[in-house]
Each structure stands twice: as structure tokens, then as C-alpha cells.
Fold this sequence. Notes:
The complex is a heterodimer of chains A (about 325) and B (about 280). By secondary structure, chain A is an all-alpha fold. Helices cover about 75% and strands about 0% of the residues of chain A. Chain A is globular, with a radius of gyration of 27 Å. Chain B has helices at about 1-35, 40-45, 60-65, 70-100, 105-115, 120-135, 140-165, 170-180, 185-195, 195-210, 215-220, 230-235, 245-270. With about 280 residues, chain B is mainly α. The termini of chain B are far apart. Classes of the chains: A mainly alpha (about 325), B mainly alpha (about 280). At the A-B interface, helix 1, helix 2, helix 5, helix 6 and helix 7 of A face helix 1, helix 4, helix 5, helix 6 and helix 7 of B.
Amino acid sequence: MCAVPTTEQATGSAAAVSGPRTGDLPRRSLRRLLSRRSAPYLLIGPALLVIAAVMAYPMGFLASLSLQDYGLRELLAHQGTWVGIANYARIAENPLFWQVVGRSVLFTGVTVALSLTLGTLLALLMERVSGPVRLMLSGGLIFVWATPVVVAIDVWQWMFDYEFGVVNWTLTHVHAGSFIHHNWFESPLEGFGIITALVVWGALPFLAITLYAGLMQVPRELVEAARVDGATAWKVFWQVTAPILRPIFVILLSLSTIWDFQVFNQVWIMLNTRPSSDYFLMGVYSYVEAFRVTQYGRGAAVSVVMVVILMGATFFYVRQMARTGELD
Amino acid sequence: MAVRARRRHARRLGYDVLGVLAFAVMIFPVYWMIATAFKPGRDILSLTPRFLPSPATLVNFSDALARPYFWSSVRSSLIVVLSVVAISLALAFTAAVGVARFGFRGRRAFLVMILVVQMVPLTALVIPIYLLMDGVGLTDTLVSVIVTYLAFIVPFMVWTLRGFVANIPVELEEAAMIDGCTRAGAFVRILFPLCAPGLVATAIFAFIQAWNDYIIAYVLLRDPGHQTLTVWLASFTTNHGTDWGPLMAGATLTSVPVVAFFLMVQRHVTSGLTAGAVKG
Lengths: 328, 280
């Protein structure tokens, strides 16, 4: 097992445990000094290396790529030609690009608003139901949470199949209209309705369970005191519960925005990897420009715009984390 | 008094009904997938859907297993996922110990970076990652996918494990060192086992992320012989129509490991191994 400690190890570890004490380090051999100082760097080094190689470096490469003409020939030569902001100029003069940006912002807004509202309602419901129902509901949510995205897309595609889909049959039979052979993806508005529903459905378990855990931390006395003072359930929620949950809301809002703004799979697989330009969101548009049109530079420019738009959301998230002291 | 009690009872009942309804709406797609997977073809392609899979059949499952590239996809997925879990655990645990147990210059910057990096949209990095992997000749190899997943998974794991490490009293390690352990020995013999719930939880997180990803594998693995299960599943739908029965069977099979692991995390995360460790 453990060997008898040498004095070197004992003192070395004691100094390390008590944190960085740069001032009172007695003179030791350079090697030991180095090893003690460098221990944390050696520990974080490998992780840092991977993150730098496959995230930081590609980020920089993405930015430089967006300033290059990089098509099929350049792909084969592994060398692009610098063209300055020509890619940005090209996409900016294309009306489709602005449509896609607007559509992505709208899609993200609607999806985030719906998932946060429904998530909160579900969390409040979980708080109010009896034990067995709560167990059933949270069990169901966990199953939905665990469903892989690609699986969920396939299942929704099947449920909304125009010919044998269970949804068309059900809607027709509850007399909501005639939905026999109704193709939901013929009109982009209806198609996006389904894509939104699918994204919201997939996001709800995480949101509801996180918010429910947050609700459990709201002191009961506060809620009861407000009730005794005659506050309605509506008022209790907005004036007692919501302010306490604010930090959680900020984090969930940022995360949802980031996730929903980069939606790709749901559009791509739902429309059998050939969505019409009416279905382009920014992620899909950038992918098509790069891999279908083989204009990697232009696709990169779209991606850069996407990252820049998302930075706002990131900012609020990081600030909230810093405020709650998570960084210390 | 009795009226008020009855009213409260009625309200609770109303909420319960709502709760059951919400459960039914949420779970229906999952149910429909499993039900379809067990139905014979004529019940799937019937204009009046059958809500119960009776008579049940396993023919969709055998059809799915017999489809081209199923087994090679399972193999690819397993290799990718197991490598990602093993390597990411090692990277994330050491980094978490570094951050939680040492104060050093750049620590806060490292934490901010860990946090910011999690916000990077994966979809935006697909193009440069593809070109970089292509440049070093790694496309169509599982290595490219494994390395990419690591970069996207490790930050979250460091963040989570750091919390687990920080919650373990440093006195336990100090006691071990007084008893003759080296600092590294204390990490391995004390910290590592005590972090077991956190390690299991993050390992399962890594498993699920790597198992579920589509876009990276779709872009980097063009050869169908190398593709992972999700790509295999997404390529089921062709322009000639879809075999819904085998597709749902394949979808069910793809979900099973994820659901199983997910249910395990729920249990492990809540059990605190260190509860009472310092009371002794």
C-alpha cells in the first residue's frame, strides 16, 4: 500500500493542500519547485489540449475560412484564397440569407417561449399532483428525455405520416376536420409547427425537472405567508416563486436559446435530408452552402454570423454563473 | 370545514387528472414507437391505426437486424462510445482535481473557458472540423469522431466533476497522507472511489452524448461501413418510402441502452457516498 512518507512528500503535499503560497516558499531544488507549481497545469493540461485542438482551433479556422474562397478545387489543394469580406458581401446581398436569419430568430423565439412556459406549468403541476401521479409523470419525462434525438425524429415522422399516420386519423375522428392524406410538410408553416412541437417535446423533460427541483427549494413559509395574506395563486407565483427562481430561469433561457438556434437534425432528417429553402434555418443553410454547394467559405461566413448572434445569449449565461459564485 | 376539505380534495383530483393527461401526451410517441415495432406489417399500414400491438410479432426486429450495415454500425457506435467514455473520464477527472484542489494562476480563466466552450454551437463548427480532419486524412475514421466528441463532452464533465471533488472533504486526503499516502496516492485511493457517483454520472452523460450524436458522425463518416447507429437509423428513409415497422424496431433498439443508462444515473446521482464519511 502506501509507503512511509518522505519529508519531501509530506511538506510538498501540505503546501499544495493549503493552496498557493508563493511568498513563503523556502529555497528548494528547482525540480521540486517546478513539480509543485506545475501540478495543477499537468492535471488540466490534457483536457485543455483536446479542447484547444478540436474547439478553439476550429473556431479560429472558421473565422479565417469565412474570409477565403474555398470551393471544391481548394478542398483538394487544402488551400483557400483570401478574398476579404467577399463571402459576407455575397450572403448579405442574397435575400434568402435574411429570410433564413429572420426565420431562425422567430423559430428560436417561439420554441424557447413555448418550452419555458410549458416547462414551468409542468413543474408547477408536478408540485401539486399526488405522489403516485408525480412518480408516473416524472418517470414518463425521464423516458422522453432519454430518447435519442434521431429516434424521436423518426417516430414523429411516422406519427405525422400523410397516409398511415396516427395523427391524421385521430384528428379526423375527433372531427377536427378532414385530415385524410393531409401532408403536413407541404406548407412550411405547418411543417415548422411540427418541428417546433418536436423540439419543445424533447426539451420539456429537462426544463420541467430542473424547474421542479428549483421549486422544491422555495421556502414553504414564504408561499404560505403570502397565501395567508390573501394572495392568489397567480400573484404567489409572480411575486414569490418567480423571483426566487430567477437565476434558474436565466440559465434555462440561455441554454434553450443556444440549443434551439442551432437546430439542424430535426429539419434535416424530418425532411429526408433534402429540405427546400423554405425550411432553412441558419445551421441548415450553412451546411447546404458548404457541403451541397461546396462553397465552404460562404458556409463558414453563415456560421460566423450564427455564432455572433448566439454570443449575446452566452453573455447572460456566463454573467449569471459568475454572479451566483459558481466560478470561485 | 368539511366543505373546504372536499374542495381541496376536488382540486387535488383535478390536478391529478391533468397530470395523467400530461403524462399520456408526453409518453405517447415513445409508446407508439414500441407498439409499431411489435405490429405485423398489415397492422402498420392500415388506414385505421391499431392502438395495441396484438397480434404481436418480432419480425420487424429481425428485419431491422438483417438490414445492411446494422451490425457494422453497432460496432462503430460501441467503439466510439467506449473510447469516448474511457478517455473523457481520465481527462475530465484529472482536470477536475486540478481545478478543485489547487489554486493556480489562470484557474478562473480556465473555468470561464470551460463554461464558454459549452455554449459553442456544434452546428457552427461542423465545417472547420470537417476540413481539418480532411486535411490530416482522418475523415472516414472513427478517431476523428472520437476526438471531436471528446472536445464537446469534456468541458461539461470537468464542470460537473469539479463539484463532486469539491464536496469531498480535503481532510480525508490529508488523513490518508498522514497515514503515509503520497498526494497522488491519496487522489487514486481516496478521491477516485469517493467520486464514484460523479464518475458514473458523467460517464453516462458521455455515453449518451456520443451515442446520440448525428451531425458529426454524418459529416465525418461518409462510408456506410463506418457509420454509427444514429446515421444508420436516419438513412432508413429513402425516396421510395419508408419501412416503418423495421425502422421503429431499429429505433427501439437504439434507445434501449440509452434509456437503461439514463435510469441508472437517476439512482446514482442521488446517493451520496460521502454522506457521514467525516462523522465516523
